[in-house]
Amino acid sequence: MTIFGVFEIRLNYFLKAFHQQKNSQQKIISLTFDDGPTEFTPRILDILEKNHAKATFFCIGKQIEKYPEILRNTSNLGHIIGNHTFHHSSKNGFYSSQKIVEEISSTNEIIFDTINLKPKLFRPPFGITNPHIADAISQTKHDVIGWSLRSLDTIIDDEQKLFDRISSKIKPGCIVLMHDTSDKTANVLEQLFVFLQKENYKVVLLDELLKIDVYEN
Ligand SMILES: [Zn+2]
After folding, report:
1. Which segments within 84-215 are labelled E, that is strand?
2. pLDDT tens digit string along 15-53?
3. Which of 6, 59, 120, 129 has its CA 20 to 30 A from that of 30?
4. What is the pTM (predicted TM-score) of this model?
5. What residue numbers bound the domain in which 148 lies?
6. For residue 188, what is the domain's CATH number?
7. How far is ligand 1, taken at its centre, from the CA of residue 177, in Å?
């Protein structure tokens, strides 16, 4: 019984997470924004609209409580909404499976109450995965989405450095991690679209990049 239990956790530990589309023959990438909705999200939405691009927003439940209208606008504009836990606690990596299931389920509920859709995509806070998180995901049946290009937009203050970092790392099939939590990211996003257009990159949604379902039917 004990041995079986350990084996089960190990199986769950190796559940698949998507980080990029490795075999992409086309110059396509996906943009993802974490930790919203916030007061900065509308400007990010405007920039995406202006550039005819859609993105995925991994949203926090307690932020949705504050800004339900922004979540509705984001979804209505055709962007994908993903689950990023309710509290985004720095202790998330130490939570029991049950506590993580609660974090994920309560976030799916507030998203469903707000936009009538049930996200299938989950991104763990700080990108931390462990057996408890894997076990929780196997219960909630979410797909875990990582990234292949971490912008470091919450760490790097200099906009030029941030732009140089992102633009130098863009590759076909990559998933870019950004945060809709500052004007700095919005400024860099504007520059990034100029670069992407010059380099003939197309921004696509995660369902197109990864060929997966993003909401429960
Ligand atoms: Zn986050």
Report:
1. 121-122, 143-145, 149-150, 175-179, 202-203
2. 578 888 887 889 999 999 999 999 999 999 999 999 999
3. 129
4. 0.92
5. 2-210
6. 3.20.20.370
7. 10
